[in-house]
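Fig. S4 source data, part A: sequence.
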Amino acid sequence: MVLQRIQTVYLLLAIIVMAVFAFFPALNIDTNQGTVLYGALATGLPEKTHPDLLLIILDVLVIIIAFIAMFQYRNLQRQMTLCGVDIILLLAMLIAIGIVAYTQKGFADKIHFTWFDLLPCLAIVLIAFAHKCIANDKRKLADSERIR
C-alpha cells in the first residue's frame, strides 16, 4: 500500500468513518413503550436497540470494497470502478435509512435522525475525492505515455 498517494488516505478515512457509523444509531424512534434506537449495530444502554440487517450488510460491503480499492493502485481503472460502486452503495444506505424512517412513521410518536446520519454523506465526499485523485493520476500517466 502506498500512503504517499492522497486517494489512499481518502479511502482509509472513508473506512474509518463507516466503521464508526456501524456502532452508533441512525434513528431514534420514540414510541409509547420508550425510545428505540435503529442502526447497523446500534448500541444503547438504557434504550431498546434494534440492529438493522440491511444497514449492517451495506456498511460491511462499503468497508470491504473501499479496502479492496485501496490496494488496487496498480490498476487505476478498477480502482475508479470500485469507488463508483462504493458511492452507489452509500447512496443505497442513505435511502435505506429513509425507508426505515418512513415505515416506522405509523408506529412512532416521533422519529429523530441523528448526527451520525451525516457520516455516510462524509464517506461519499471522501470517496468522490479519491475518485477524482485517481482520475488525475490516470490522466498524468496517459500524458507521460504520450510524451514517450
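Fig. S4 source data, part B ends here. Residues 6-22+53-106+116-147 form one domain.
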